Amino acid sequence: MSTETANWCDRCGEAAATGSHDACRAAREFEPPRFCASCRRRMKVQVLPSGWSAVCVAHGETTSAG
Amino acid sequence: MPEILDRARTQVLDGGVGLDEAGVLAVLRLPDEHLSATLQLAHEVRVRWCGPEVEVEGIVSLKTGGCPEDCHFCSQSGLFASPVRSVWLDIPSLVEAAKQTAATGATEFCIVAAVRGPDERLMKQMREGVAAIRAEVDIQVAASLGMLTQDQVDELVAMGVHRYNHNLETCRSFFPNVVTTHSWEERWETLRMVRASGMEVCCGGILGLGETVEQRAEFAAQLAELDPHEVPLNFLNPRPGTPLGDQPVVAPRDALRAIAAFRLAMPRTILRYAGGREITLGDLGTRDGLLGGINAVIVGNYLTTLGRPAGQDLALLDELKMPVKALSATL
Q1: What is the mean pLDDT of residues A24-35?
Q2: Do B301 and A29 touch (CB under 8 A)?
Q3: Of all helices (H) and strands (E), which one includes residue B131?
């Protein structure tokens, strides 16, 4: 999930177009997303040894596999 | 050569007797110009008293978030404004995670829950999950479920859980600065019961919580007194929304000095790279630690954050000619 084309930053939950999210993008190398980039809801995230899945109640599941 | 390294060579490398608190502190205070020699000595100690093998482990969160405790470093506390939401892992996904872990060559699979201690729902999940893993996957199962009662200790033994992780997190004198909802002594009591049960004791902590160098040495000495089978060494990865969210990351040289010092305090323990190494040490530091006292790694992802792909760590071990410990060697 790209933080550059979304409405909301999937790491900090703030507006993607407001301010710099460079630190968020860097941190995401070692973090799964926490916020839905479409609606800003906090997602239910399960980290597994070789991947992760994140579920937004409104926008469904995203996984590390894409 | 500083006196403390000469003493460590005789006492720890030759004699197998770990440094005391004052000795650990002296190592932690060594200037940077002696770091390379310190790491080299710690590596010699590790090879001499533990052998060349590296134990590989994978971990998974069975129950994430919503924890009633206030461990100030933890994004899974329900008391902080962390973005981590509560979620449970189902049994088929747990077994799949164990299979993924075993496929890396790992011998250990640790099931972790963010709780004060297990309730009946969690114990039921453990009973079913451990049984399913043992039926389908060739791997040792460890657990980390917080503080236990004696009945729960006995039940975990009966399930076949061979190692129990319960970190003291930091030294006794600093613990109240990090956790206020339970005490260091309560954690120690669980560790005492685990030890008495015959399960292997896994107990470590996190460096970079704001403790002083003296308290880092105190922590190493307290762990040495406990004499755990394994010591997982984490470096704080400051989590958004937690009280330690703005804490600076441990400087790489301090992290490496600590690895060597903890090895010199505990020559025979399994000293494991755990969380935070990626942001604290990066690729080069990971290598330095493996050549400075570390003899175990968590591969793949952590509980709420991500690690390096397992293949990168396994390739590094291969490059360093460090064999992965075989399952037969752990039974």
Answers
A1: 96
A2: no
A3: helix B120-136
pLDDT in tens, B68-78: 999 999 999 99
B4 touches chain A (CB under 8 A): no
> Could you tell me the pTM of the whole model?
0.95
Rg (alpha carbons) of chain B, rounded to whole number: 19
The ipTM (two decimal places) reads: 0.91
Identify the closest residue of chain B to A31 by CA–CA distance. Answer: B305
3-state DSSP of B187-249: HHHHHHHHHHHCCEEECCEEECCCCCHHHHHHHHHHHHHHCCCEEEEEECCCCCCCCCCCCCC
Spatial distance between the Cα atoms of A28 and B192, rounded to a whole number of angstroms = 39
Domain coverage including residue A10? 1-66
Tally of structural domains, chain A: 1
**Contact (CB<8Å) A49/B301:** yes
Question: Which residue matches tokens 């892992």?
Answer: B89
B148, B117 contact by CB (below 8 A): yes
Q: Quick check: B142 and B134 in contact, CB under 8 A?
A: no
Tokens at B241, concatenated: 């929304």
Residue at B120: amino acid letter: E
The answer to whether the beta carbons of residues B95 and B146 sit under 8 Å apart is: no
Contact A34 B83 (CB under 8 A): yes
